[in-house]
Amino acid sequence: MRGLKKKRRIQVIALAAIALAVSTALIGYAMRDGINFFRAPSQVMAEPPGPTETFRIGGLVEEGSLIRGQGETITFRVTDGGASVPVAYTGVLPDLFGEGEGMVGTGRYIDGVFQATEILARHDETYMPKEVIDALKDQGVYVDPDAGVDG
Fold it and tell me: What is the mean pLDDT of residues 100-123?
């Protein structure tokens, strides 16, 4: 009887370990396309990612670079002050999107152009994503508008 309990306990532990390994593998498989790393334009130009890698890029829309084409494709350049990357996007841009404004795009870097599948613009005049602020600070471009303000 004692040997049967020990055998059953080992079977339960082995089954639990297998279930844990399978569930971890399924979660990893499900998230493979859901994880997008953020890169600043300077990072993209220094080490261009492969054309199959989906990532996020963010910075400021470069002044004078926004071109609305004949069709639905819009081209512009995104910069962090150290480098700028050409972006092509087909679709409707957010209302607050414009030159000199912060943006984050998701897509792939193909043949020297970031092909965006999604463009996000800041949702009010004061908000900017943390990743974009950090990238701009690294290049010495961003100055905190609240710096020196007593509150």
Answer: 88
